[in-house]
Write a structure and sequence with these properties.
Elements (H helix, E strand, L loop, with lengths): L1 H4 L5 H8 L4 H16 L3 H9 L6 H12 L3
Length: 71
């Protein structure tokens, strides 16, 4: 979703509305989501799952940078 739609505006406010503990979003980004996307096998897995060559290593780096901006 971040790749195609970008990061939603006011995500911090929305996280506070939806999550009992909004700091979990940052923790999960830091400890689970970004490391998972950073894995060398992620792009290959994505392409295999979605039968697409559109997702590249450059795309992966761009997504990591966008997500890292939330930390």
């Amino acid at each position: 979703m971040v790749w195609k739609n970008g990061i939603p505006k006011h995500i911090e406010i929305r996280a506070k509305e939806l999550l009992t503990y909004p700091q979990i979003l940052v923790k999960n980004l830091k400890e689970i989501i970004i490391p998972h996307i950073s894995d060398d096998r992620f792009a290959d897995s994505w392409r295999g799952t979605f039968i697409s060559t559109e997702f590249t290593e450059d795309t992966k780096k761009e997504i990591i940078e966008r997500l890292s901006s939330l930390l």
